[in-house]
Each structure stands twice: as C-alpha cells, then as structure tokens.
C-alpha cells in the first residue's frame, strides 16, 4: 500500500513538473500581447459597406393589398458597436428603382436606423438579427408628371456575416419592410409590403 502511495505521489510530481516546464516554455516563446486581440463585433468596432437586394413588393391602397411587383435596391451601411455584439447602424441613402407599365416609373429613397445584435461564435460565420425603422420617400412619375409622398417605414432583417478576408465580410440576409405612404387626408394605410433577399460586402475596423 505504501509503495502504491509513493508511486502515485511520484507520478503527480512528474506530471506537475512537465506541465510547469511546458507552460514556462510556451510563455517564453510567445510574449504576452500589449493589448487584447480585436475581433469582429467587439465593442468599438466600426463596420462599413453596403448591399444589393432583390425585392418583392405588394401595393397597399386604402388598406387593400394588390399585386406583387419586383425591383432591385442598393443600400449603403455604416455601424458602430457600442457593446460587444450590440451594433447601432444606419442605412443613410437606400435607393430603389422600379419600372412600371408604359411610361411610368418610381423611385424610393430611404433612410433607416438599423440597431442589431451580432452573435459571436468560434467560427467564421456571425449570425445577426436587425431592426429597421425610418423614413421613405416615394416618387411616382407618369407621363412626365411626378408625385412625391413620404412616410414611416419599419421592419427587420436576419442573416449571416461570413469572414472571407481578414477584415472583409460577405453579408447575406432576408428582410421585411412595411412602408407607409399616406396622401394628405387618408384614413387607411397606403404603401407597400416588401420582402427582399440581399447580399453585400462590409469591412470592419
């Protein structure tokens, strides 16, 4: 029994000595960094870029939904992480163009605030969920005459941000927007319900 205890104690001492040696050697080979490693989504991170989306839009006139139409949109983006994972973003000048029948066309200009939460993972992929709220201006041109209406827009987006370079992210998401464009005196909602799939590129600093 005493031999067993002596053998166990000897093994613990040897293992402890080896771990201590390896630990001291690794620290000697890799000096401690002067500042913590920065990763995407860390507090103080800045994200800049934009996306292009393919949208499916449904007209709403006096509360009644109509047919679906389709268009392409380009949306710039800027964001700042106030806490780890918590980002305050803005789409300062989103532009959407739609060609209608005949000589009609429409242009939408949007400015949307986009707070989001980015889920930090141990992989190259960062899932995110984002809220959207702001102002949309819709200009409809028919036979050379243009009518412009502005209104409130809200919705949300979910997707992923995948690291394809050291500081570059491929962003893919799906988005829903409820766009209200009520003429003066309207008592029912007018505007669009929009569902889109977007892809873009951002860099983080």
Task: Describe the structure in brief.
The protein has one helix at residues 2-29; strands at 46-61, 64-83, 86-99, 105-118, 125-142, 145-163, 168-180, 191-204. By secondary structure, the protein is mainly beta. It has two domains: 1-32; 46-204, Porin.
Taking the sheet with the most strands, its summary is: 8 strands, antiparallel, barrel
Query: Could you name the CATH class of the largest domain?
Result: Mainly Beta
Give the N-terminus to C-terminus distance in angstroms: 63 Å
**Overall body shape:** elongated
- The helix content, as a percent range, equals 10-25%
Number of helices: 1
**Total strand count, please?**
8
Q: Can you name the CATH architecture of the largest domain?
A: Beta Barrel
The main sheet orders its strands as 1-2-3-4-5-6-7-8
Q: What proportion of the residues form beta strands (DSSP E)?
A: over 45%
Low-confidence stretches: 1-34
Oligomer: single chain
- SSE sequence, one letter per element: HEEEEEEEE
The pLDDT mean sits at: 80
Radius of gyration: 27 Å
Can you tell me the number of structural domains?
2
């Amino acid at each position: 029994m005493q031999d067993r205890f002596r053998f166990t104690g000897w093994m613990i001492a040897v293992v402890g000595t080896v771990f201590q040696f390896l630990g001291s050697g690794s620290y000697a080979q890799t000096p401690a960094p002067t500042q913590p490693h920065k990763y995407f989504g860390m507090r103080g991170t800045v994200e800049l870029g934009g996306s292009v989306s393919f949208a499916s839009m449904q007209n709403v006139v006096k509360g009644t939904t109509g047919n679906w139409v389709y268009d392409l949109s380009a949306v710039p983006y800027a964001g700042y992480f106030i806490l780890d994972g918590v980002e305050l973003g803005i789409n300062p000048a989103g532009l959407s163009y739609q060609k209608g029948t005949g000589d009609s066309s429409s242009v939408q200009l949007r400015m949307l605030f986009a707070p989001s939460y980015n889920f930090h993972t141990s992989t190259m992929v960062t899932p995110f969920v984002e809220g959207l709220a702001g102002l949309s201006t819709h200009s409809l041109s028919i036979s050379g005459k243009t009518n412009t209406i502005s209104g409130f827009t809200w919705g949300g987006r979910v997707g992923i941000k995948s690291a394809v370079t050291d500081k570059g992210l491929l962003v893919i998401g799906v988005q829903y927007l409820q766009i209200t464009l009520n003429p003066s005196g309207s008592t029912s909602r007018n505007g669009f319900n929009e569902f889109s799939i977007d892809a873009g590129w951002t860099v983080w600093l």
